Each structure stands twice: as C-alpha cells, then as structure tokens.
Amino acid sequence: MPAMTDFISFPFYDLFHENGHIPRVREQLPPLLAGVRRSILEIGAGSGLVTTSLADWTPAEIFALEPSDGMRALLLSRLASRPELLERVTVLSCDALSVDLDEPVEAIVMINVMYALEPDYRRRLWPVLADRLEPGGLLVFTWRAGGPPEPRPLQELESRRVGRHTYSVLSEVLGSDGEAFEARYLYRIAEGDRVISEEEITGHAYRPGWDVIEGELTGAGFVQADAPEGFLAWRLA
Ligand SMILES: C[S@@+](CC[C@H](N)C(=O)[O-])C[C@H]1O[C@@H](n2cnc3c(N)ncnc32)[C@H](O)[C@@H]1O
C-alpha cells in the first residue's frame, strides 16, 4: 500500500513523469495492446497519465485502480478535463489484491508500480490477476532488469521551472538487501537560491530479478509473450 508520506510527492508527479517514463510508454505500449477492444484493468493508475492514453488507443472500457486518495484526486481531475472519457473509465479505490470486477477483463496494465509491491504481496497478486483475466487475456507491466541499484549519494534527478519557482527531486540510494533497496527522496521548491520548502521521503522499493518473476508468473498460469525492453507481457494460458 502507498505510504502515508507519499502525498509529499503528489505536486511533483506530473511535472516530472510527463518527461520521465511516460514518453517511452506512449511509444511502446500501444503495439502491445493492439487488438484489445473490450476491457482493460489498469493497476496503480496514479494521476492518470497512462489512463487517458489507454482510452485514446483502444475503444475498451477501462477500470483505473488507484488506492491513494491523493493520486485518485489527480486522476479524477484529469478525467474531468476529458468529459468524453467519463462514460468509459471507472475509477476503483481499492488496492490491487482486493480488486473485484463483475466480469474478467481482456487485459491488465501495470505501469511503474512493481517497485512498490513487497515480495509477499506481489507473489499473492499474480493468481488474483489471473483470476480477473479472460482466458488468453494479456498482462503487461514495466520491469527493470538488473536488480536493485548500488548505494549512491544524493543527486538531483530532475528539476523544472514553474513560474518564479524551481521544483526539484533528488534521491539517494541508502542500501540494498536481496531484491529490496532503501532510498531517500528530497522534494524541494526554491526561488533562486532560497529554498521555500524541502520535504523528504525514505522508503523501500523492490526490483525482482528475471528468475523470480518468471517463476511467479508461470506458477500463476501465465505464458510469456513478446514485449520490448522495459516491459514484460504475459498471456493467461
Ligand atoms: C509511480 S506511480 C505510477 C502511476 C502510473 N501508472 C504512471 O505510470 O504514471 C505508482 C502508483 O502505484 C500505486 N500503488 C502502489 N501500491 C499499490 C497497490 N498495492 N495496488 C495498486 N496500486 C498501488 C501508487 O498509489 C501509485 O499511484
């Protein structure tokens, strides 16, 4: 589940992610979803940066699941700015393990969420998702090979100007243990050299290796399909 301190990052989210993983997702995800027409469950929809694109790329009904109240507010605000999508996108406030749908979906999409799932939670999630998919249904998610990053000192990830202010995110990797690593994030707003606010979040994230993911997914009844680097695609057998 998202940490209570995550709200610190919400004002920064769209500022940085629109330049971060989202352009690659917009380029590489549509071919993976070619042929999807009926329904998509999006796990961890966040502020809806991917949600509206899913609705633009496909005619499918979309179930956008986002457990964080703050993120869901951003998501609903984005959907409100696209009134033509409101009939087709249902927003679910539960977490991924608790998802309950009236009928199985054709595809499940999970972008930039895996890092937040504790190993035991993730292991329990795959059978739940298998149960929510139509036979032969598609599961697509982002995955980064190579395991957790090495410890490294605080460095600026990105900064953006907003009027007279500069919004910056800095991060430090404190250490790792197996597939888990601990990182510290600083969220800073400054005007010139004057820091207006600076808040920090320290938390754990997870980067399971290929063998782990393959074992978990095949164990839950999935068969791997083709996907470009950075994504994994699986079909329910
Ligand atoms: C980095 S954001 C990604 C948002 C969006 N998919 C995107 O790419 O812009 C990760 C999201 O996953 C959500 N999340 C974390 N744990 C979750 C869980 N157990 N079930 C569903 N969503 C979860 C968080 O609340 C957050 O909105």
User: Which CATH first-tier class of the largest domain would you pick?
Assistant: Alpha Beta
Report the C-alpha radius of gyration, rounded: 18 Å
The arrangement of helices and strands along the chain is HHEHEHEEHEEEEEHEE
Assess the beta-strand content as a share of residues.
Answer: 35-45%
Fraction in helix: 25-40%
Unreliably modeled segments: none
Please give the domain count: 2
The CATH architecture of the largest domain = 3-Layer(aba) Sandwich
> How are strands sequenced across the largest beta sheet?
3-2-1-4-5-11-10
The rough form would be described as globular
What is the tally of helical segments? 6
What is the CATH third-level topology name of the largest domain? Answer: Rossmann fold
The N- and C-terminal alpha carbons lie at a distance of 29 Å
Mean pLDDT: 95
Tell me the total number of β-strands. Answer: 11
Give the distinct bound molecules.
Answer: S-adenosylmethionine
Please identify which CATH superfamily of the largest domain we are dealing with. Answer: Vaccinia Virus protein VP39
